[in-house]
Write a structure and sequence with these properties.
about 200 residues; mainly alpha; Four Helix Bundle (Hemerythrin (Met), subunit A); 2 domains; two-stranded antiparallel sheet; 2 strands
Length: about 200
Amino acid sequence: MQQAMQKNKWWAIAVFFLIILNLATLATFWIMRIKEKDANGMFSPARKDGAAIFLIQQLSLDSAQQQAFNELKNQHQQGTRSIRKKLRTAKENFFELLSDSAVSNNIIQEKSAAIASLEQEIELLNFQHFQQVRKLCTPQQQTKFDAIIKDVLKQIGPPPPPRIMPPKEREHGFSPQDNRPLPPNGEHPFPPPPKEAP
């Protein structure tokens, strides 16, 4: 009886430590998620620092260039952050129109145009930012900049949506695109190659 109680005691201690370990893991995950967001609930531009490091390394920027680059980056992030806040509000206002069955087409067009205008502002800021970054470079660095800018834009852009298999491909159990079998759930077993690390 005493041996059984001792065994149960050790099991209880093991379970307790497993629970503590799981809670610590969850807490770490949520802290990291919170740090990725700024005060407006948007993902912080720090998430995109990988692209900045990639640029610095690929272009071999010296210390003076890096300092100027970081100043440009901070100015750019401040500008885009304020516009993105307005953009989020504009989109919320736009989709609130769904509750108004009598809303006119003119109002719909006006609200959607406001969204398009803000998105255009962001793209213009992005373009001007990279123009300024390119001006920091020597002629040799500018050649390299032109060669890698598309990779940089992929890193700072949203991730591509997951590929959804068409019903015919799922039905036949293979992808005509690569002529390879699919798992029963229809998900593509061959994910795209990972993006180049910064």
